Automatic annotation (TrEMBL):
Name the UniProt record assigns to this protein: MoaD/ThiS family protein
Pfam families: ThiS
Superkingdom per UniProt: Bacteria
UniProt organism field: Clostridium aciditolerans
SUPFAM superfamilies: MoaD/ThiS
Length: 74
C-alpha cells in the first residue's frame, strides 16, 4: 500500500518534506516513526488525512500522515 508522509518544522532537518512510501498492510504511524528515526515523544501533532490520529491505528492505502513537532515561539 502507498502512504504519503508529510514532515513539518524541525522534522525536516536532515529529511525530506514529503515521503511516498510503499509499505505492507497494517502498518501504523508508530512503525513509520521508527523507519524515519523519529521518537514518538517528539511528536506533538499527528494527523491522518487531516484528522487527529493515533500512533497505533493501522493506516490504509493512500492515507496521508502529517507529523508536527512541538512549536515554540517568542
Amino acid at each position: 500500500m502507498k502512504i504519503e508522509v508529510r514532515l513539518f518544522a524541525t522534522f525536516r532537518e536532515g529529511r525530506e518534506k514529503k515521503y511516498f512510501l510503499e509499505l505492507e498492510e497494517n502498518i501504523t504511524p508508530k512503525d513509520i516513526l521508527d523507519i524515519l528515526k523519529i521518537s514518538s515523544e517528539e511528536v506533538a501533532i499527528l494527523l491522518i488525512n487531516g484528522i487527529d490520529g493515533q500512533l497505533n491505528k493501522p493506516l490504509k492505502d493512500k492515507d496521508v500522515l502529517s507529523l508536527f513537532p512541538p512549536v515554540g515561539g517568542g
